[in-house]
Amino acid sequence: MPEPITLAALSLAAIPSVAAFLLDRVGGMLDRRREDGGEFPVVREPTPEQRGELEELRGTLTGVVARPAAEVREDADALAAMDRARTLLEHLHDRQIDFEGERRAPSKYRIRAVVDAEDLRNGAVGVRLHQVRASATIDAQVRAKSVDGQVVGVEIDLLD
Fold first, then answer.
1. Which of 29, 132, 131, 146 is nearest to 88 (CA)?
2. Residue 107 pairs with which residues in a beta bridge?
3. pLDDT exceeding 70 applies to what percent of the chain?
């Protein structure tokens, strides 16, 4: 499970508005028309798997919004759901989403890899890096009709 440290550092007063914002954006992503642009234009269409995850996150965030902020702040699962929603939205909108009071380093480095194959023999790695900065944004997708061996999205030897 991710460690949503930056969301946990938000003020107690900010948690309800952050949860409501994420719920609104997730709902907007699921309910929008293709031609909608607005303030948060969609750069990538969600895959069927991502749409399923967005549906699940919408249900979870609906429950989070209804709870007292103090309770949410102490709930690692609720904060992880909020963090996952933000991560997925950042991917689909291709922009970093920060909230007031957070100390999140901007992502200066972007790495994107897509492996789309019929058959993968002996496994595959979407992105293999020896050393990478923690501020990097890495998006790896590996898709195949048949797989023989282990498939890894991202493999990093040293994270600094």
1. 29
2. none
3. 83
Which pLDDT tens digit goes with each residue over 6-19? 676 677 778 888 89
pTM over the 0.85 mark: no
- Do the beta carbons of residue 37 and residue 51 sit within 8 Å? no
CB 106 within 8 A of CB 97: no
Tokens of 83: 């963090």
| H, E, C per residue of 48-90 | HHHHHHHHHHHHHHHHHHCCCHHHHHCCHHHHHHHHHHHHHHH
Whole-number average pLDDT of the chain: 81
Burial class for 97, CB neighbours closer than 10 Å (0-12, 13-18, 19+): middle
Question: What is the mean pLDDT of the segment spanning 102-115?
Answer: 70
Spatial separation of the C-alpha atoms in residues 11 and 16, rounded to whole Å:
10
For residues 97 and 124, the answer to whether their CB atoms sit within 8 Å is no
